[in-house]
Write a structure and sequence with these properties.
This is Phytanoyl-CoA dioxygenase family protein. The protein is α+β, with helices and mostly antiparallel strands. It is built from nine helices and 15 strands. The strands form four sheets. It has a seven-stranded mixed sheet. Strands 3-11-6-9 form a four-stranded antiparallel sheet. The longest helix is centred in the last third of the chain and has 26 residues. The radius of gyration is 18 Å and the shape is globular.
């Protein structure tokens, strides 16, 4: 067991990622996918801020299926092997790619948008496949070892609508030969450093792709400025984040109030981070 943990930690430190990692059983993945689709229909019918923030950053605060995943023993064990025994969930995100959709994301890093101190050693994004994840359905591609460069400058790749939709891209050349496609079967996951340079492609298949991402952090992480919140899921939490509570049921009134407060707080911080980046 110790050897396996050390090997995982070494892979993560050297390459900036590790996959494929077994996490959910096929039955658990199928149940999560069904619950995810039900959740998306529900928030779409509600509309407003609930629909606006359906895909990020606090799904686990209102949806019991997401809360169940962030507490899954296999995922907690993975996060603990990389970060230590004290764990918080800072964010949850859904990444979907509909069948025959042409959308793609440029080479970029997540870290530059998040406004976190200490992410370099004390944070990990775990990307769980709720469906099979392949090059054909637009899975992520990692640029091996790119996390070691730290946070990089980003730029827009062009002025056409396609360039804008692809998002900002790192202002350095990416060695395509160093890239690797994150191929997973439903229930498996990958783990990557928040400074990992990555991209994703179009889905040319007849089936939609669903991935659920969890940002685990240790209490050593702090927001760069302003209030933020996180959910303690193992061990002790940290004083740098306001505490969050697990939902008693799907869309419980207390959970919804917490969700609205937490997402507003997070969006204010992200907006400030983006504005600061644009002026420096």
């Amino acid at each position: 067991m110790r050897t396996a943990v050390n090997n995982l930690r070494d892979r993560f430190r050297t390459d900036g990622y590790a996959f494929p990692l077994d996490a959910l059983t096929p039955e658990e993945a199928a149940r999560a996918l069904t619950d995810c689709r039900t959740y998306l229909r529900a928030v779409s019918s509600v509309g407003g801020a609930m629909a606006q923030y359906a895909m990020f950053p606090k799904i686990h605060l209102v949806a019991t299926w997401a809360d169940r995943l962030v507490h899954h023993p296999a995922l907690l064990g993975l996060a603990e092997s990389l970060l230590g025994p004290d764990l918080m969930v800072w964010s949850t995100n859904l990444f979907t790619r509909p069948a025959h959709s042409g959308g793609s994301l440029a080479w970029h890093q997540d870290a530059v948008y998040l406004g976190l101190n200490g992410y370099q050693e004390h944070a990990v994004r775990v990307w769980v496949a709720l469906t099979d994840t392949t090059a054909a359905n637009g899975t992520m591609r990692y640029s091996r070892g790119s996390h070691a460069q730290g946070a990089l400058a980003h730029r827009w790749g062009g002025t056409h609508i396609e360039d804008i939709m692809r998002g900002e891209e790192v202002a350095v050349e990416v060695d395509e030969s160093s890239s690797v496609a994150v191929v997973l079967t439903a229930g498996q996951c990958s783990a990557h450093h928040l400074a990992m340079v990555h991209c994703s492609g179009a889905n040319t298949t007849d089936h939609s792709r669903y991935n659920f991402a969890i940002d685990y952090i240790s209490p050593k992480v702090r927001p760069t400025e302003g209030e933020d919140s996180a959910l303690t899921v193992r061990g002790e939490g940290g004083s740098g984040f306001l505490p969050e509570a697990r939902p008693l049921s799907d869309f419980h009134p207390d959970a919804v109030r917490q969700f609205y407060a937490a997402t507003a707080r997070r969006q204010a911080r992200i907006d400030h981070t983006v504005r600061h980046r644009s002026t420096t």
